[in-house]
Amino acid sequence: MPVTKPHLATAEAERAAAPLAVVALPEIEAAAAHIAGRVVRTPLVTSPALSRLCGQPVHLKLETRQPIGAFKLRGAMNAVLALSDEQHRRGLVTASTGNHGRAVAYTARELGLAATICMSALVPSNKVEAIRALGAQVRIVGRSQDDAQAEVEWLVAEHGLIQIPPFDQPDVVAGQGTIGLELVEDLPDLSCVLIPLSGGGLAAGIAVAVKALRPSARIVGISMERGAAMAAAIAAGRPVDVVEEETLADSLGGGIGLANQVTFALCRDLIDEVVLLSEAEIAAGIRHAALVENEVVEGAGAVGIAALLAGKVSLHGPAALIVSGRNIDEAMHRRIVSGAAA
Ligand SMILES: *Cc1c(COP(=O)(O)O)cnc(C)c1O
């Protein structure tokens, strides 16, 4: 059985303070067994329109069908199930206000655990309410994401809460990688996977699974032109700071962490090609998803569709696009679909 292991250049490996955590096919298969029945095994549906456009069969992996509307449930659920009973009793904490925050809140509720989501006073009330509705405790602190993260670290240090990271953790990556197993099962002649790329947990997990089972399949990571942290890190050969900018693909914003342990090396080694998209291209992806595919898709979830519409990826066989999430502000969705925005 082929097992993909990340490799570091020797000098780099010597400099690394902690040993690089390895995620390979066995960890992803174990994750699939653990989360089975607790997350949705999502459908892979054919897009006749995109297939016609590209001259190859194009399929959409609808992670929008997860109960929280995004794939992040897979990684969070797997990471929380891997904790001990004693850790479960301490409760979960994270600073994410987006899909990862929803995933942690949902997971806690399903497993009967306590969850605290820290957020700044500047987070819009609809996001606060979405997390509260899932039964999590919301803690409003400070006026920035950094303030919220500092609160998380204080709760971990002083009260022993367990932080669930959004991407840079082996159990999270293995959970996201279960998508790759399902893709190969549903589409045995898979030749290319288009994956939204931010912190790289989704891309790393899927790439490990797909490259292990279908070594010739191409992995394409897709980000926005505005503040693509993993693309900048791969280009620089190490994690770098990027300026965060507003984008329609808001779930793809944020850095990968300068002390990145897991996802940077995996993405650097396993992603064949990174594609960057303009805001107008992302808007066209959201619009196509709504009007042609009949799917409400948020900006981050529409980048695979957008990349094909923009002619930025050429296909040479059956392809799968990860439609990663559907959580977009309703009014903004209406504006984009009507053609009024971007
Ligand atoms: C988090 C997220 C991504 C990116 O996942 P990473 O593991 O951070 O690369 C893509 N799409 C949606 C909808 C997300 O919530």
Describe this structure in words.
It is a single chain. The chain contains 15 helices and ten strands. By secondary structure, the protein is an alpha/beta fold. It folds into two domains: 2-70 and 169-338, Rossmann fold (3-Layer(aba) Sandwich); 73-163, Rossmann fold (3-Layer(aba) Sandwich). Strands 1-2-10-7-8-9 form a six-stranded mixed sheet, sandwiched between helices. The protein has a four-stranded parallel sheet with strand order 5-4-3-6. The longest helix is centred in the middle third of the chain and has 17 residues, at 170-186. The protein is globular and about 55 Å long. Residues 1-19 have low confidence and may be disordered.
Short description:
With 342 residues, the protein is α/β, with parallel strands linked by helices.
Indicate the topology.
Layout: H1 10-15, H2 25-35, E1 44-46, H3 48-54, E2 58-62, H4 72-81, H5 85-90, E3 92-94, H6 99-111, E4 115-119, H7 125-133, E5 137-140, H8 145-159, E6 162-163, H9 170-186, E7 192-196, H10 201-213, E8 218-224, H11 229-236, H12 263-270, E9 273-277, H13 279-291, H14 303-309, E10 319-323, H15 330-337
Parallel strand pairs: 2-10, 3-4, 3-6, 4-5, 7-8, 7-10, 8-9
Antiparallel strand pairs: 1-2
Helix pairs in contact: 2-4, 2-9, 4-6, 4-9, 9-10, 10-12, 13-14
The protein binds pyridoxal-5'-phosphate.
Helix/strand order, N-terminal first: HHEHEHHEHEHEHEHEHEHHEHHEH
- If helices are DSSP runs of H or I spanning 4 or more residues, what is the number of helices? 15
Number of domains: 2
Mean pLDDT, all residues: 92
Strand content: 5-15%
Task: Name every ligand kind in the structure.
Answer: pyridoxal-5'-phosphate
Largest sheet composition: 6 strands, mixed
List low-pLDDT spans. 1-19
Q: Going across the major beta sheet, what is the strand order?
A: 1-2-10-7-8-9
Radius of gyration: 19 Å
Please provide the count of β strands.
10
Structural class of the secondary structure composition?
alpha/beta
Shape: globular
Estimate percent helicity: 40-55%
Return the CATH class of the largest domain: Alpha Beta
- The CATH topology of the largest domain turns out to be Rossmann fold
End-to-end Cα distance: 47 Å
CATH architecture of the largest domain: 3-Layer(aba) Sandwich
Protein name: L-threonine ammonia-lyase
GO molecular function: L-serine ammonia-lyase activity; threonine deaminase activity
GO biological process, one term: L-serine catabolic process
InterPro entries: Ectoine_EutB, Ser/Thr_Dehydratase, TrpB-like_PALP, TrpB-like_PALP_sf
